[in-house]
Specification:
This protein is of the alpha/beta class and 322 residues long. It has 3 domains: 50 residues; 70 residues, Ubiquitin-like (UB roll) (Roll); 123 residues, Rossmann fold, CATH 3.40.50. Helix content is 35%, strand content 20%. The longest helix is centred in the middle third of the chain and has 28 residues. The chain is elongated, with a radius of gyration of 65 Å.
């Protein structure tokens, strides 16, 4: 059927029906229909738990790669290579310490070797005592000293002690002091300082030759020529007498030319020394103070006042003669 081409006829508007009064209350407004969420805003929840379980099942079901001998060899090679690298790095970082340790061990070994060789050689028969040389013996006979030390022959040089030498030389009163020297491989050198006779001390009916310390060197029935006689109070020993010590100090301080003219000395105390010269002349010395000045005064008086019989130098700044 053919539609008309013209515009559709307008329908006249109908009037709304008039409301009717009723005793019933007005009806409540109809509830709005529930709105459905738009698809563009909300989406369905994602099922993660199922996916995780499915992935785990697939992983468990997949077969593990079988280990082959080739893979184990490669693993061992890798481990060995790593260890070699670690050892190489450790050696590189400790090279200086190891060099220093090698030097220290080498030096210590050399020192031990040298000391061990020295000890073995020192105590071997090569280093045993075979010769004794005595130096400085005049009044003491060198042969007697060698005979006294003969017991040390054959002893290794390091074992020859000063105590052994002192014990062997104790009987030699003429020896004032000594020193020893070991000369490898087999020689002992003994250097002796002898006591010097200074005066003669009369003890009873004998005359004892003594040194400055009062040590008796020899004794005889008559005084030894060329030595002054020191008179001491009866019963005093020269080694323990203060008077003898003062007189000996004065005699030792005199020049050889003046001492040769002294025939005797006496000292009742340390401050009262008197000398007797040849011809009976007297020297009043006094104490042991200002020895050099008193010696110079006496030498001048002996030259300038040769005819005097008494020379008093006890006050060296005002000497007198009589």
């Amino acid at each position: 059927m053919r539609r008309p081409s013209g515009p559709a006829p307008r329908t006249p508007p109908q009037a709304a029906p008039a409301p009717t009064r009723s005793s019933a209350p007005p009806a409540a407004p109809a509830a709005e229909p529930e709105r459905k969420p738009e698809a563009s805003v909300l989406t369905a929840p994602i099922e993660l738990t199922g996916r995780i379980e499915q992935k785990k099942a697939e992983t468990d079901a997949s077969p593990e790669p079988a280990s082959t001998p080739g893979s184990w060899r490669e693993l061992r090679r890798a481990i060995g290579a790593r260890r070699r690298v670690e050892r190489s790095e450790a050696r590189r970082f400790t090279a200086r310490t190891r060099r220093r340790r090698r030097w220290q061990l080498g030096i210590a070994g050399f020192v031990v070797l040298v000391l061990g060789g020295a000890v073995v050689t020192a105590f071997s028969p090569i280093m045993s005592l075979k010769h004794i040389e005595v130096v400085g013996a005049h009044s003491v006979k060198a042969a007697e000293v060698q005979h006294a030390l003969a017991g040390e022959l054959g002893t290794p040089l390091p074992l020859v002690t000063s105590a052994d030498v002192r014990h062997a030389l104790d009987d030699f009163r003429m020896i004032e002091s000594y020193s020893t020297q070991l000369e490898p491989p087999s020689t002992l050198v003994v250097r002796i300082t002898e006591r010097t006779p200074l005066a003669v001390v009369k003890q009873g009916s004998s005359y004892e030759v003594v040194d400055q310390a009062g040590v008796v060197l020899s004794a005889g029935a008559s005084p030894q020529a060329g030595l002054p006689v020191v008179s001491l109070p009866s019963g005093q020993q020269p080694e323990r007498s203060a008077g003898f010590a003062a007189a000996a100090a004065v005699l030792a301080a005199l020049p050889d030319a003046v001492r040769a003219t002294v025939t005797g000395a006496s000292a009742t105390s340390a401050n009262n020394v008197t000398l007797t010269l040849k011809g009976g002349k007297k020297v009043i010395w006094g104490g042991t103070d200002e020895m050099d000045l008193k010696t110079a005064d006496l030498q001048a008086l002996l030259k300038g006042a040769a005819g005097a019989s008494v020379y008093d130098v006890s006050s060296p700044r005002a000497p007198i003669t009589r």
